[in-house]
């Protein structure tokens, strides 16, 4: 299973990137073909339809292609003001915008429809960014993603990782594994269903 993992933070010491790294490692151990995407590596401006009218800018097409090529995703979201960060909204807005004049990308949801998405969050706070999830999940539904019923929020994130970047708490590891299991299982089932339809 091709799994895309990314965090909604470009901060050097990001807890959500650490969580994404741990999750990517667990997914590889489970046999998944993992791409850990660093959103900061992509040249993606703030969405502006005027810019878009001049041609899809920067690395937006590359981002669309990568997201489209992965049936399963894990998103690790920070919480900003009880919601998810603008970085994630901007990324998801760009990849769900149809490309004018390109019939292959006239379907705005080509990169997002049918993706099975696991939502994780990490925060220094006591709720672990849980409130960001309550905004991110409806956005993912709008993008026609299948969101895994299990989610996980890592509270007190600065205490949550050991020196090697592993999760200190066994319950936390089990929770991440449970989200991952659901995502990989459901993505596999949807792919099987698709194959059946294609035959
Ligand atoms: C935050 N932070 C934060 N944390 C939280 O638990 N609930 C919140 O509502 C907010 N609000 C908030 C707003 C803004 C503008 C910033 C910059 C930060 C703190 C945030 O969780 C913390 O900076 C994390 O470390 C961000 O995630 P990364 O970068 O570590 O992955």
TrEMBL record:
A Pfam family per the record: FMN_red
GO CC list: cytosol
Annotated NADPH-dependent FMN reductase-like domain residues: 1-157
InterPro entries (alphabetical): Flavoprotein-like_sf (IPR029039), FMN_Rdtase-like_dom (IPR005025), NAD(P)H-dep_reductase (IPR050712)
Signal peptide range in chain numbering: none
An example molecular function term from Gene Ontology annotations: FMN binding
Annotated protein name in UniProt: NAD(P)H-dependent oxidoreductase
């Amino acid at each position: 299973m091709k799994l895309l993992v990314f965090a909604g933070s470009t901060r050097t010491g990001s807890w959500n990137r650490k969580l994404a790294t741990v999750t990517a490692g667990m997914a590889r151990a489970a046999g998944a073909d993992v791409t850990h995407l660093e959103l900061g590596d992509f040249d993606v401006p703030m969405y502006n339809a005027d810019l878009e009218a001049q041609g899809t800018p920067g690395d937006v097409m590359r981002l669309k292609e990568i997201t489209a090529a992965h049936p399963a995703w894990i998103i690790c979201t920070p919480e900003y003001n009880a919601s998810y960060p603008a970085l994630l909204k901007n990324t998801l807005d760009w990849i769900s915008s149809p490309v004018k004049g390109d019939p292959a990308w006239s379907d705005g949801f080509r990169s997002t429809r049918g993706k099975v998405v696991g939502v994780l969050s990490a925060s220094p706070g006591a709720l672990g960014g849980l409130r960001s999830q309550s905004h991110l999940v409806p956005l993912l539904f709008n993008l026609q993603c299948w969101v895994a019923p299990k989610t996980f929020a890592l509270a007190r994130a600065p205490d949550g990782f050991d020196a090697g970047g592993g999760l200190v708490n066994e319950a936390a590891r089990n929770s991440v594994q449970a989200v991952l299991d659901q995502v990989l299982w459901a993505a596999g089932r949807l792919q099987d269903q698709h194959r059946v339809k294609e035959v």
